[in-house]
Each structure stands twice: as structure tokens, then as C-alpha cells.
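Milestone M4 deliverable, item 7.
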Amino acid sequence: MWPDRRILDLLHIDAPILLAPMAGPGLAELAIGVAEAGGLGALPTALLSADQVHTEVATFRSRTSRAGRSRPINLNFFCHTPPAPDPARDAAWRDRMAPYYHELGLDPAAPIKASARAPFDDALCRLVEDVRPEVVSFHFGLPEPALLDRVRTTGAVILGSATTVAEARWLDAHGCDAIIAQGAEAGGHRGVFLAGDPIAACATQPGTMALVPQVVDAVSKPVIAAGGIADGRGIVAAMALGAAAVQLGTAYLFCPEAKVSAPHRAALGRATDDGTALTNVFTGRPARGLVNRAIRELGPLTAEAPAFPLAGGALAPLKAQAEALGSGDFSPMWAGQAAALGRALPAAELTRALAEDALARLARRG
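Output delivered:
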């Protein structure tokens, strides 16, 4: 039996394994596999329209329904502050991309689509009220209190991501039901929200092993460990540190259900312990990904990149053209430091294997 049932009882799941919401790779198919094996499926909304969210949730509901009741699902939202317009910085960034445009046969003066990742607002809150997910999670802090109260009124459990003890305490005091402790090892965007400069915060962000026990000691809510966990050993280690559950992202990128480009999938297969870096070149905000040409030549971290999420606009045509040629040179290939431990299993099979491995190790310890 699992030694800590707080997250199991709170989220109504059978295994303390949460799928990390991953914009792009993580759609209904991946969430269904995790949920069917007893974990918590997640659906990121950052790149989806309201209609797409409705469709994905409906697919999840229909495929996980038992006796008229579906498995719980987590909808994830960003809470960043939209950046102020900075035409000079945007133009300089496009100029920086010009040699790559020429190399790939693209017109550097052609109009580009702006990167649009809306923070949680009234429209997205109405989406939550319509869809009524069992769990709602937030990255980059929490929405304003009035919006958070509306989310809570739907009956949803509220999760928030913390990268420091101070952020964890803030989330605990501002209405989270459980706190995700995101260590430096994690793939994707840092959940930093209290630091004035997210790039500077990368230099001091603690790793999972250091962060989790300190967060456990500092807050009253159950803690979910995230970052560098990819097998039963990592799950048991997180629980030994006081975590009630784990959240995994990179491990699920290897699943056939993950919507991962061919270059990204190939790069995951070559992953090494030192093959990732924190970079802001793809979105303007630090995120961990597999090192490629864009990271090496533009970053990994640079003050030139426009603020989140605007940096991605100029890179989007390069990404599309390079991927059409079979290259991931300009693709954000998010992954954590434990990517080399990944296994190409269907999501349900991987979730069961992770749970069984962890339970067997816990039994031997007991």
C-alpha cells in the first residue's frame, strides 16, 4: 500500500503519479493512458483554443467513463503577466534571426504570427466553469483572488507550482490544496513567480532532492515532487523526502501517445545526463530542453530575447522549415535531466510499471 494517501484521497486517484501538463505533446490520448492506469491525467491549455479544450476534455471523459463517471482530469493554466510592447527589442530579435532565415530560404521581412499564450483571465475562468475539471493547476503563480474563488466554487482541487520554499509558502497561504515542488532538474518552463528576474533565479533554483524536504517542512498542504523523476527509484526517493506524490513529464514524452515531433523523439533517444540546458531563446522565459543549435548559438540564456511569450514568434518559421527538413535545430525540445531513463511504453503501461516498481521497492524497505 502507498504510505501516504493524502493525494490519492484528495484527487480520487489510485496511484500517486501525476502527468505533467506539457503544451504540445500532452493531449487527451496521453492523459487517458495515465488516468486509465490510476494516475492523474493532465491537459495543458496554453496552446489550445476553448473549442479544442472542450473537444479534448470530451474525448477524455468518453474514454475514461465507468458507471457514468469519468476519471479526474487536471486542466493547467499560466498566470504570467503579459509583457509591455517593446518594438525595438522585437525588431532586434528578428534581426538576430535573419541569417538563419536566409540559410533556410525564408524571407526575414515576412510577417510572423505573434506568440500568444494568454494568462488565466475571465474567459479562461468561464472555460473552467463550463468544463468543470476535477483539478485545476497553475504555473507562474496564481490568478487574482476573485478568479481563484470562482475556480474553487466549481469544486476543483487547486494545485500550484513552486520553485523555492518562499513560493511554496505563498501558494500555501493563497489557497492551493497541494503544492508541486519543481526542482531544477525538471523539463519545460520554470514555475518561478516571486523572483523579479526569472533568468537570474535560474542560478539559485534548488534541485528536487534539496527542495522537496524543505517545502514539506514549510507548508501545511501535501507536496508533489517534480523534476528528475523517471522510475520507481525516483518515486520512492521523493516519498522518503516527504512528498505525497510525484509529477512526471519527460518520462511520458517517450510514449507513443505523446505528440512529439520526429526530431524531438530522436533527440530523446540520444539523451544524456548533461544533454539539457535552461534556455529562454524559444519563449523568452527559462525552460529546460535538449541542447540543439538554437540553444548553442543564441543562448542558452540571453538578454536579447523578448519577454515571454514573444520570443517564439520569430523562431516559429525556422522551427517549421527545419522540421520539414528533418531537423530539430530550431525546435524547443523540452526535457528534464533524467531523460536518459525514459522508456518507450504506452502511457497506461508505463504508469502501471512505475507504480509497481515503486510499491515493490517500498515493500522491500518496509
